[in-house]
Specification:
The complex is a heterodimer of chains A (365) and B (773).
Chain A lengths: L4 E7 L2 E7 L5 H19 L4 H6 L1 H11 E2 L2 E2 L4 H7 L5 H9 L30 E14 L5 E15 L5 E6 L5 E6 L5 H7 L1 E4 L4 E10 L9 E10 L2 E10 L7 E9 L4 E8 L3 E5 L4 E9 L7 E8 L9 E9 L8 E7 L6 E16 L1
Parallel strand pairs in A: 5-20
Antiparallel strand pairs in A: 1-2, 3-4, 5-6, 6-10, 7-9, 7-19, 8-10, 11-12, 12-17, 13-16, 13-18, 14-17, 15-16, 18-20
Chain B lengths: L1 H35 L11 H12 L3 H16 L8 H5 L7 H14 L4 H14 L5 H13 L6 H11 L5 H17 L4 H11 L5 H14 L11 H7 L5 H18 L8 H13 L3 H11 L5 H11 L7 H14 L9 H6 L5 H17 L19 H13 L6 H12 L4 H17 L4 H11 L5 H17 L5 H10 L6 H13 L7 H12 L5 H17 L4 H15 L4 H14 L1 H7 L5 H16 L1 H6 L22 H5 L25 H13 L12 H10 L7 H11 L4 H11 L4 H7 L4 H5 L6
The chains are: A alpha+beta (365), B mainly alpha (773).
Chain lengths: 365, 773
């Protein structure tokens, strides 16, 4: 019988590993590990061997605060920031150049906030709060353009820069499109269940307020449609891929990138496209077609050409993936109705924008 | 000469190594230089000189120098170096005024206290002093570090400190006290009684901030004392929503065990009738009607039991996958079957997170699907495999799909699986074929369409697809020996294209086993097989031998078959593989005894005489020996056996029990007395909550001038009502009423759609279309 189980997650090219000696909920461990990585990203900007090494003292302190005797302790970024100062570049430069450290200047005042996720005594000269409604379309489309499965999931990312202890109520014009929601712990669940409004005291800074599944008719038309035609012949093949824009409310589709993998045996590709540029990656054996921006009503972008292969019958059946985003457009049509603020006197500057983008958008060939 | 060449080669190799080393060194140095200006990278330098310098730095009077020294030490710890020799120098700094220095000292002490128990004791005084500090953070930190020092002598001091802190005003310190309990327990298990006492007191705490840690301590120290939970049960249920995420997981784990011992099984039917009901639910069109039916017929829940289910259900919306799975665990193991329908959606939602979490969730779904497939039927499409899924996710998804297949979704599923078969990834394609086979076995009604689908695959250009499908078809045909002749004939027809040995062997086996249905064709198959015999792979040769033997036993008087068989036997006799030679010898002895007598090529007459009586028996029973009923191999889903574990446990994911795993207690047969749960605890919690909070599931300690005023109104009704909220707010802020309503009108967001279209060309608004108010 092994003595330890190793639970690990792999993120940003690093493996984070915890040995487990006793029965424990594996998801608690995994979720905690991911939380650690999230916090490290929040503190260090990015997580890599170099950044961890450069800030090892901060990392040690964070781990010390986040976990005690194997149990998660403080994992809310707001609470942690009250105890450990993030290593900003400015702090570092000052300490290096002027030869004085920032240590000692800052001693936590000990007035921990009573709400674990929000700092006490936040002050801003400009009170502002922004919401980003981001929706991601996951879809599998077969070679005839028929939808095999498609689901759209959205989340609301907030950036809160409000002073004091504001209590917010966010309501939607059409909450009916929200289905199967999950919330940041700050949201009052019951209130949402009964009244379909989000009532919460926000954490300071960036946070993910909620995520949801878009409740759409099962066969909702996708905003973008890809039609691949591939003919495999002797030692090669022909392909013809066209993209049509549908149903985007007149918005243009941006950052369109189509990746079309070919078999390992493919030697060369000859193709033409009428929009953007394409590149054949000889190592990964795939065609990357970078279309940039597609405005509706323009002529249909298409990529056609042929490839040669060292095998008699090159393997087929690869899946095309598509990446895109549509600014200022939410597939669900979710609209914020109002944001009310209680408990604080000021009137904040508020902003909402929406974005629809491809999640796992795959086209079978 | 060769010697000289060899030396030259070795020299060249060494030179290459050296130059590589040098260049690596330069790169390394350059990196260090580059980083030194702005990062802590230089702390990782470990030359002897620097190490000696650390001692001086630790003794320095400047905080900056001390920090430098400490960071260097921590860096060395992280490199795995033993720096315990500095313990005395570090301990001196434990009382430093600088909090940053102290934190680093703590990290060091926790690391080495066990090795230097005597010196570690020197620091205890400082910690004790810190326990009375004004700053709650310092008090908590002191307790945390002190309890973390693993020196058994100090356990009484730690115990005292915990006692002191558990009455602290700050919930943060009380939480730390609770987390210190398991540490103290592991240090000195004899303290258990006093620790249980502390836990009992802490259970009275009404702060949702501490409760999670208290329950953690409870689970660690005295999980068997469920009697302590009685008076707090209702409070725990109500507090659940407000506790922190990790606490919620732990509390639900405890409540599950508690409920299993205190309530009666809500699904009194035996598990068998449960499956029957499930079946019924499949066939009927209106599931809702059915579930209603279950519900009515089912046993009436204890109100406390229901309370638990109700308090958990909103946590299905937590962002933390661990919490969601804990709720699922509670519902799966405690709720009436009809209630469990809630679980599908939230679980499927978790499939959008990190792949490690996906894996655990899928393993749990697979386990649940073996028992209650109906939970996930309607989410079939969510389990469709994406081309980017790693194989461990893919295989689980495929397994779940076959588990939840039923009459309604099978066509969809089969079409999807056929898609996977096209994949260039051979491993994936073959698992898909196996999945089709499993579907056919699970649902005999659908076996025909599964078989048809598989037969089509025989023309695939991919060898492994063909091979796997033949193997699966063989398995399916074995299940229905009566009417498989047509399909076998089709298989025979395709045999010429099939080159994969395993597939050819399977076909030959099928022909032999069912040769009575294939009177005309079977001998011809043998003829062809005999022709290609020398070039076949070993397993095909063995099956050819078997086929011949079976045919001979079936047509004992057909001279052509006998001759064919003899020809094959002769070929096999000189085969390279001894298995084949052995088999040939065995079969020859078994079948051709009389043949031998006639030819008498080998063997002695006498011996044959003696064996005659025996061989007569053998000949009589030949068919039985060769053509006995073979049981079809059973396709077991890999998740079988997982269902003996609690949902969400590590043991389930690994499919074997790991230390510390405790099976779920059985339901009691008699209803235990529930009156223990009537206590003032719940009431006092409700009261304290009502006084402090502003909504039924909200944060506590939330008192600000504006709020405290209308909270008084609120205490009357626990149900939070928006209208009354406004009313009270209005009446309170009379003058401001106008402003407030006005503000809320203004607050209405103008959505960007209208603006967006009019200013479509304006890139700036397109990107950052923030509406101002």
């Amino acid at each position: 019988m092994p003595k330890y189980q190793l639970v690990h997650v792999y993120r940003s090219g690093l493996t984070f590993l915890s040995p487990i000696s006793n029965e424990v909920d594996p998801l608690m461990v995994l979720e905690f590990q991911h939380r650690i990585v999230d916090i490290l990203i929040e503190y260090l900007g990015e997580v890599s061997e170099a950044t961890i090494k450069d800030n090892f003292d901060v990392v040690y302190q964070l781990l010390e605060e986040m976990m005690d005797y194997g149990y998660p302790l403080t994992t809310e970024p707001n609470a942690l920031k009250e105890m450990i100062v993030p290593p900003t570049i400015i702090n570092k430069v000052i300490s290096q150049v002027a030869g004085v450290t920032n240590v000692g200047n800052y001693i936590p005042n000990g007035a921990l906030s009573s709400i674990p996720w929000r700092k006490a005594g936040v002050k801003y000269t400009n009170n502002e709060i922004y919401f980003d409604i981001v929706e991601e379309i996951d879809a599998i489309v077969d070679s005839n353009g028929a939808i095999v499965s498609s689901e759209t999931h959205g989340f609301i990312q907030a950036n809160c820069r409000l002073s004091g202890m504001p209590d917010l109520t966010l309501s939607f014009l059409n909450p009916r499109v929200l289905d199967d929601c999950s919330f940041h712990p700050c949201v009052r669940y019951n209130k949402f269940e009964n009244e379909r409004v989000l009532s919460f005291v926000p954490p300071d800074g960036h946070f993910k307020l909620m995520s949801y599944r878009v409740n759409l008719p099962r066969n909702q038309i996708l905003p973008i449609n890809v039609k691949p035609q591939i003919h495999i012949g002797n030692t090669g093949g022909k392909f013809d891929i066209s993209i049509t824009i549908r149903n985007t409310d007149g918005k243009s589709v941006e950052k369109v990138l189509l990746v079309f993998p070919l078999g390992k045996s493919v030697l060369n590709v000859n193709a033409t496209c009428n929009l953007g540029s394409y590149m054949f990656d000889h190592v990964a054996k795939c065609i990357r077609w970078d279309l940039g921006k597609i405005t509706p009503k323009e002529k249909t972008p298409a990529l056609s050409g042929n490839f040669t292969s060292s095998e008699q019958t090159p393997e087929s059946g690869h899946t095309i993936t598509l990446d895109f985003q549509i600014n200022m457009y939410a597939l669900s049509g979710l609209k914020v109705d109002s944001l009310k603020i209680y408990n604080e006197g000021y009137k904040p500057y508020k902003g909402v924008r929406s974005l629809t983008k491809a999640g796992k958008f795959q086209i079978r060939t | 000469m060769s010697d000289y060449l060899y030396k030259a080669a070795a020299f060249a190799q060494n030179a290459a190594k050296l130059s590589k080393k040098v260049s690596e060194g330069i790169v390394e140095n350059a990196r260090e230089f580059g980083l030194e200006a702005t990062s802590s990278g230089h702390y990782f330098e470990t030359s002897e000189e620097k190490i000696r310098d650390i001692r001086r730095q630790l003794d320095s009077r400047h905080d900056r120098e001390k920090m430098d020294g400490l960071k260097r030490l921590i860096a060395m710890i992280s490199k795995g170096r033993n720096v315990s020799e500095f313990f005395p120098d570090v301990v001196k700094n434990v009382a430093s005024q600088n909090i940053e220095i102290r934190k680093l000292v703590y990290i060091y002490i926790l690391r080495y206290a066990e090795q230097e128990p005597d010196l570690a004791l020197l620091s205890i005084n400082t910690f004790q002093k810190d326990l009375t500090d004004q700053n709650q953070l310092i008090r908590a930190m002191a307790l945390r570090v002190m309890s973390g020092i693993r020196v058994p002598v100090i356990s009484p001091i730690v115990l005292l400190a915990i006692k002191k802190c558990m009455t602290d005003l700050s919930p943060y310190v009380r939480k730390t006290a609770a987390t210190a309990i398991p540490k103290c327990y592991s240090l000195d298990p004899t303290q258990k009684d006093s620790l249980v006492e502390i836990i009992t007191t802490l259970l009275n705490d009404n702060s949702s901030f501490t409760i999670g840690s208290v329950i953690m301590a409870f689970n660690e120290v005295c999980p068997e004392r469920l009697d302590l939970i009685h008076p707090h049960y209702r409070k725990l249920c109500r507090m659940l929503v407000d506790a922190d995420e990790w606490g919620q997981i732990v509390i639900m784990g405890l409540l599950l065990r508690y409920a299993r011992t205190q309530f009666l099984n809500p699904n009194p039917e035996s598990p068998r009738s449960d499956t029957q009901k499930k079946k019924k639910a499949f066939y009927s069109d209106e599931d809702s009607d059915n579930s209603q039916e279950f519900y009515d017929s089912s046993y009436i829940l204890d109100p406390d039991h229901e309370l638990l289910l109700r308090s958990c259900s909103s946590l299905l919306q937590s962002r933390n996958s661990g919490v969601v799975l804990s709720v699922v665990k509670i519902y799966y193991h405690l709720a009436p079957n009809a209630e469990a329908y809630k679980l599908g959606r939230p679980l499927v939602r978790l499939l959008r997170t990190h792949r490690e979490i996906q894996h655990v969730v899928l393993a749990n779904i697979a386990t649940m699907a073996t028992q209650r497939p109906y939970l996930f039927e309607q989410h079939l499409q969510q389990f469709f495999v994406l081309s980017t899924d790693p194989s461990f996710i893919r295989n689980l998804k495929m397994e779940i799909m076959t588990l939840i297949a039923n009459e309604n979704n099978i066509t969809l599923l089969l079409r999807e699986l056929q898609e996977y078969v096209k994949s260039p990834d051979k491993g994936f394609a073959t698992t898909a074929i196996q999945a089709i086979g499993r579907c056919a076995i699970e649902m005999p009604d659908m076996a025909d369409s599964c078989l048809n689908g598989l037969m089509k695959l025989l023309w695939s250009r991919n060898d492994s697809v063909v091979a796997e499908s033949v193997v699966v078809i063989k398995r399916l045909l074995q299940l229905r020996p009566q009417d498989n002749a047509d399909l076998i004939i089709q298989l025979i027809k395709s045999m010429e294209q099939i080159n994969v040995p395993r597939a050819r062997a399977s076909i030959l086996w099928l022909v032999g086993q069912y040769s009575e249905n294939l009177v005309k064709i079977a001998p011809d198959v043998l003829r062809k097989a005999a022709k290609t015999f020398p070039n076949e792979a070993d397993i095909v040769k063995l099956q050819t031998l078997n086929l011949g033997a079976k045919l001979v036993s079936f047509h004992p008087n057909n001279p052509t078959i006998k001759l064919l068989f003899q020809y094959i036997l002769n070929l096999a006799r000189y085969d390279l593989d001894y298995d084949i030679r052995d088999r040939a010898r065995l079969l020859r002895g078994l079948i051709l005894l009389d043949g031998n007598k006639e030819n008498s090529n080998y063997g002695e007459e006498n011996l044959e005489e003696k064996n005659e009586s025996k061989s007569a028996i053998l000949t009589d029973n030949l068919k039985k020996i060769l053509l006995g009923e073979k049981e079809a191999p059973i396709e077991e889903s890999p998740s079988v056996g997982r269902d003996r574990f609690i949902i969400g446990s590590m043991s389930l994911v690994l499919n074997h029990s790991i230390p510390g795993y405790e099976a779920l207690p059985d339901w009691p047969s008699e209803k235990p007395d529930g009156s223990f749960r009537d206590s003032s605890q719940d009431e006092s919690y409700k009261r304290s909550k009502a006084a402090k909070s502003l909504s039924s599931d909200s944060y506590e300690h939330y008192s600000t001038p504006v709020f405290s005023a209308y909270e008084k109104n609120k205490t009357k009704t626990d149900n939070y009502n928006l209208d009354s909220f406004y009313d009270s707010a209005d009446s309170l802020e009379g003058g401001e009423k106008q402003g407030l309503t006005k503000a809320s009108e203004e607050d209405t967001f103008e959505e960007d759609s209208s603006e967006g279209t009019s200013e479509d060309d304006d890139e700036r608004t397109g990107v950052n279309n923030n509406t101002k108010t």
